[in-house]
Design a protein that fits this description.
The chain is mainly alpha-helical. The protein folds into three domains: 43 residues, no CATH class; 212 residues, Cytochrome p450; 47 residues, no CATH class. The chain is 57% helix and 4% strand. The strands form two sheets. A two-stranded antiparallel sheet has the order 1-2. A two-stranded antiparallel sheet has the order 3-4. A hairpin with a 2-residue loop joins strand 1 and strand 2. The protein is globular and about 60 Å long. It holds the Pfam family p450. One of its GO terms (molecular function) is iron ion binding. It comes from Didymosphaeria variabile. This is Cytochrome P450.
């Protein structure tokens, strides 16, 4: 292994390991195998009858917010209940209702990139700006908030903390003593150990808690989310019709944090990837640009619907970005649930 050179920043790290060892299955840690085959993807994640369950890693990932979310819940029945409970937030009607908010945020993002004069504008970090855009979009969807982190620096600490905090929690989740660490994730001691990212992540958790309490105490009109479009408002008094389960405040706290992180971080990765590949492939950029400009006469026309669906080359560009830069920060581990 000492002669093997792989950049730790490369998104193809595990793919490089597989190439190096010339096989689709690689042991990446004690008792841990990484599979890189289509059949394994389907066998492990594609069916409820698979002989696997979510690994212990999930029990640390967002427990700092108070309980397990629909992403980290390892009990299959509880996971199913939470998925059904959350379904209204992601319905076609819900997405359509929030579309004007997203369009406004995207238009402001585009305006912020325009140069002031006729020449070249100032350089900008595509990944950083994509992180802020993703965070602004998810803030609008989840909380109905207008963070404006693309244009203003006041809330950028929230957006900047997401990836560093998740990196820290990722390796903590694999510690043999992870079960001892979990109770201290919201403590002052852990803020000292984790530094500013953990402090900012706790501020984000507190912000989410405040939003939950505002909705629970019927302060909607005062807080400006009385229309109930945002995801949290849809979930606050919703229950699972099949089981009768109703969410606690902790469930809402954790789920709102999960939605922010699970939406903003993957979006920024894929969007950054699309920018990277398009600017490095001028012909592809030209085709995508011509397709969009021949389909729409002005930016205000670009909304979800048949016209946008007809942009097949643009869709293929997005799909290829998703393929090359999978919108997950790491492995999504599963463990054997019973003896085969």
């Amino acid at each position: 292994m000492k002669n093997m050179k792989i950049s730790p920043q490369a998104p193809w790290f595990c793919s490089s390991l597989i190439d190096y060892f010339a096989g689709p299955i690689v042991r990446i840690a004690p008792n841990t195998l990484s599979f890189n085959t289509r059949s394994a993807l389907n066998a492990i994640y594609g069916t409820r009858t698979a002989n696997v369950k979510k690994g212990e890693w999930y029990k640390t990932f967002d427990i700092a917010a108070g309980t397990y979310s629909s992403f980290t819940e390892t009990d299959r029945e509880k996971h199913s209940i939470k998925r059904r409970w959350m379904a209204p937030a992601f319905s076609t009607e819900s997405i359509k209702a929030n579309e004007p908010l997203l369009i406004d945020i995207i238009e402001r993002f585009c305006e912020s990139l325009k140069p002031d004069g006729d020449g070249w504008g100032e350089k900008w970090n595509a990944h950083q700006m994509s992180v802020y855009l993703g965070f602004d979009m998810m803030g609008a969807l989840v909380f109905g908030s207008d963070f404006k982190s693309v244009q203003e620096e006041g809330t950028r600490d929230f957006a900047d903390c997401v990836l560093p905090a998740q990196k820290l929690l990722y390796w903590l989740s694999y510690l043999p003593v992870a079960f001892l660490v979990r109770p201290f994730l919201r403590s002052h001691f852990f803020e000292i150990v984790g530094g500013k990212p953990v402090q900012d992540n706790n501020r984000l958790i507190d912000y989410g808690k405040a939003q939950v309490q505002a909705r629970r105490s019927n302060e909607g009109n005062e807080k400006g989310f009385s229309d109930g479009r945002d995801f949290l408002s849809r979930l606050a008094y919703n229950d699972d019709k099949k089981s009768g389960w109703r969410p606690t405040d902790l469930d809402l706290d954790t789920e709102s944090l999960n939605m922010i992180i699970a939406g903003a971080d993957p979006y920024s990765q894929v969007f950054t990837g699309a920018i990277f590949y398009l600017v490095h492939n001028s012909e592809c950029l030209k085709k995508a640009t011509e397709e969009v400009r021949s389909t729409f006469t002005s930016p205000s026309e670009i909304i979800g619907g048949p016209q946008l669906n007809s942009c097949t080359y643009l869709s293929a560009t997005i799909e290829e970005s998703l393929r090359r830069l999978a919108p997950v920060p790491s492995h999504v581990p599963a463990s054997s649930s019973r003896a085969a």
